[in-house]
Amino acid sequence: DIQMTQSPSSLSASVGDRITITCRASQSISRSLNWYQQKSGKAPQLLIYAASNLQSGVPSRFSASGSGTDFTLTISSLQPEDLATYYCQESYSDSPRNFGQGTKVQIK
Amino acid sequence: QEQLVQSGAEVKKPGASVKVSCKASGYTFSRHYIYWVRQAPGQGLEWMGRINPSGGSTRYAQKFQDRVTMTRDTSTSTVYMEVRSLRSEDTAVYYCARDRRISLTVDAFDIWGQGTTITVSS
Q1: From the list A38, A43, A91, which residue is nearest B108 (CB)?
Q2: Interchain contact B102–A (C-beta under 8 A)
């Protein structure tokens, strides 16, 4: 199975800051990488699919990039409503769709 | 609108079984795989398995292979997941999610159920 590793596991930033979360796959997954946002007590929601494509309705301050084994999610100007845990997920070929361990974003 | 609605919370004793339902509406049921993902308290997301509503074929994560069964009822557009021999470590929120195939090489979980809390306690 493909293993996904995120860093950092948590971060704290101020409103308006630019933040970046990293996700690394244990083998090359091309651009088969999705990002989800999970707010406390809620189901996850799709943010980004295929490494860099914004899901409909997601604010443009979210962006993502990467291919192969290394990927990043960026929030260009952190907002209070971005308080959440963010997960990457591989969707490569017939693999299981494993998730990273999550990155908890807190607001200072 | 397109949605997945799950059954309600359950409390079970160790060794018991539980069956969670996930009813799809607003889209063609047979067109999208349904995945099950669980989240233990304070933990991350764990893939459990998937079912193809069209033919009923399944694939399970190895750790759940002998305790989990996923089925579907096309007449009601509902997917079921049964977990047997429950233990305290199975206490978690269980989610179903629709897998949207965007292209030949791209898919993502675009719709999620609201989650079902299963508590295993003696």
Answers
A1: A91
A2: yes
**H or E stretch covering A75:** strand A70-75
Which tens digit of pLDDT belongs to each residue from B31-57? Answer: 999 999 999 999 999 999 999 999 999
Name every chain B residue with its beta carbon within 8 A of the beta carbon of A31.
106
Q: pLDDT digits over A4-38, tens only?
A: 999 999 999 999 999 999 999 999 999 999 999 99
pLDDT of A94 higher than 80: no
CB contact under 8 A, A44 and B45: yes
B105: contact with A, CB 8 A cutoff: yes
Task: Kindly provide the residue ranges of all beta strands, DSSP E only, lying in B2-115, ordered along the sequence.
Answer: 3-6, 10-12, 18-25, 34-39, 46-51, 58-60, 68-73, 78-83, 92-103, 106-112
Give residue for tokens 């290394």: A70
